[in-house]
Amino acid sequence: MATSERVLSGWRAVALENDLLRVVILPEKGADIVELTDKESGVDPLFKAPWGLRPPGSVPREGWEGHEFLANYEGGWQELFPNANDPADYRGETIPFHGEVATLPWDCREEGAVLRLTVRCRQTPFRLERLMRLEGRQLVLEERVTNESEEPAHFVWGHHCVVGPPFLEAGCRLRVPAGTLETIPELWEESPRPRSPQPRRRLSHRPRRRIGGGPEPEARARVSPRLGSAGLSLGDLVAALRRRGSDAAPRLLRARH
Q1: With 70 as the cut, is the pLDDT of residue 160 above it?
Q2: Which string of DSSP letters, residue by residue, matches 80-132?
């Protein structure tokens, strides 16, 4: 495994790669993962916004509505912490849309075959650490949240991973562990076939097929002993991404918490 650095639209970009996979992270832009390329096929499954990545300090793009997360959103994969979705009032602070850490600079250090990324929240007492490494065609994330105050504190934790073309096409399938599906009345994008919101229901479940072999991934909660209660919107991020009829994308994205 090797690491390298370059400048991407004015942002420091750190690449983590081996013979099979290349991952690019923007440490100063919320540790966004902006590339996840399978070298054999050349396919990167992550969505790339048509307006592209803008340099630091650019005028917010149209439609940002005062949300820093949207001001220079370029697609890709972001970390949502300690809030997700709409802004939330918590203990006298307004936690922004999709949380704090996606718009804060992270410290990034290479430790052997691992990248260690760390960020401290400014409105809440949390420190978030992410270890990133490659195992063949697998990108492995190991993350830890620490409450640095003496008081219990709450958080919501999620990942905003958006896939797009050329990976996303007719016949593309996303396999995730079955869970609960709840729709809302709002439609965020125009659709030729609008769907009415449906009541809360359980998804049918079939055992997921492992792609690429190897042991079954684990999901572990790693929190400080001082942490009070926590709400995890990402309990088990285990997504096998595959195009029908080919292995044209990284076979497994694995996260441990």
Answers
A1: yes
A2: EBS--SS-EEETTEEEPTTBSGGGS--EEEEETTEEEEEEE-SSSSEEEEEEE
User: Tokens for 11?
Assistant: 């942002």
CA atoms within 13 A on the CB side of 204: 1
Q: For residues 140 and 219, is the Cβ–Cβ distance under 8 A?
A: no
Instruction: Report how far residue 132's alpha carbon sits from residue 141's, in angstroms, rounded to the nearest whole number.
Output: 5
Q: Sort strands 156-161 and 231-232 into parallel, antiparallel or unpaired.
A: parallel
Can you tell me which residue has the tokens 């970009």?
A: 13
Q: Are 167 and 241 in contact (CB under 8 A)?
A: yes
- Do 160 and 102 form a contact (C-beta atoms < 8 A)? yes
Q: Which domains does the chain have, with CATH numbers?
A: 2-179+209-256 (2.70.98)
In this prediction the pTM is: 0.73
Cβ partners under 8 Å of residue 51, min gap 6: 61, 74
Please give the Cα distance from 98 to 169 (Å, whole number).
Answer: 27
Q: Are 162 and 87 a contacting pair, CB within 8 Å? A: no
Token pair of 61 as six digits: 């793009």
* C-alpha closest to that of 247 among 216, 213, 215, 205: 213
pLDDT, one tens digit per residue, over 222-246 is 222 222 222 222 222 223 222 223 3
CA distance 140 to 223: 18
pLDDT for 2 equals 82
Rounded distance between C-alpha atoms, residue 131 and residue 116, angstroms? 5
